[in-house]
What we know:
- 48% of the residues are buried.
- The protein is 32% helix and 25% strand.
- The chain has five helices and ten strands, in the order E-H-E-H-E-H-E-E-H-E-E-E-H-E-E.
Amino acid sequence: MRVDRAFAVLPVPGPQVTLDRCLEHLVAAADEAAASGVETTVLLAVAGAGAAARALADWTPLVEVVDGVDLAAVVAGEDAPPGALLTAGAREALRRSAVPATALLLTTSPASAVGTGWVLEHARHHRGGALASTGPVRGGAGGRAHPVTANLAVRLSVCAAAGWAGELPPRGTALVHAVTPVVGSLLTGSRLPS
């Protein structure tokens, strides 16, 4: 499968002390992807218009100078939980995508730091035939399994074909569990990916 477009959805349910650090990593990964021919939009799925305005005010001027990278906000209800924010972000990605067959929907969390190769590593799995892929998250889960949406990529066409029921990955989608890309936690002392 050709991958030439990516949408990275970041659900932001409320004030996040790690949001700026997360965005530093996410924008760097988007920049690397764009430099390799994968135009990337970072979609901040936020609870409330005020939160969207604050995040965009700080980051839009920085991202505007990066070719092939876009930053936008998707506003959900004031008390929207992370799952509803992910759904809103995914629906926006579907709306924006001209060719869902060559686009990826990626998700992470504001408490995570992705490496610069995050988008490209997921794209590599999808070019090899994956419908959905996930990788490990270092630290931050307290010994429990991390939510799959902390490090997930799904072909956007799979979401479209499933009629988008708001579940990631869509029910019945085979999920490739890979050792790369690794995502780190911003809430612990774990070594962050480079």
